[in-house]
Amino acid sequence: MAKIGYARVSTRSQHDTSQIDALTVAGCTRIFRDVASGKLARRPDWDACLDYLRAGDQLVVTRLSRMARSVQHLTEVAALMGKRGVDLIVLEQSLNTTTSTGRLLFHIIGALDEFTADLISEGTLEGLAAARARGRIGGRPTVMTPHKLTTARRLLDEGETITEAARTVGVGRTTLYRHLELGERPLNAPQPQT
Fold it and tell me: Annotated active-site positions, please?
């Protein structure tokens, strides 16, 4: 029987040192690490970890959310672990699937983690909608001004290439193309949603 650890952070700006320390203290002989969203079912080290596990091993994580962000995915992982004879230990939530109580708590805490993630997403979307309703579009401010656009159009009419016109007015080609496609709409008008 071996204890195999798995650690995950979502972005490169986050650090997994506290997870690694906890997994090491728990006695993990091998630790797999990913930098990827928990919503992704396939992650390089997660896949390698699953391949490495053998019957009788224990998969150790600090929190259920390190493995997945949905109850469906957690349920699939639990079924796979059960089928392969691998136990799951979740340190911070004191879960251990070797007991029936541990298996029940596994599903309850997984549902709560998914619920929390959904609430955060809903709150973010509501905040963005409220900002748009107040006229705040978000994103970077445009570098294109009405004067630059008029100048670029004149240069293009005189035969300059899009690259030359963009360089002359001090914007990128993509920015110039996008504003030329907008036609007569005001520059600060919201862009159509795709």
Answer: 10
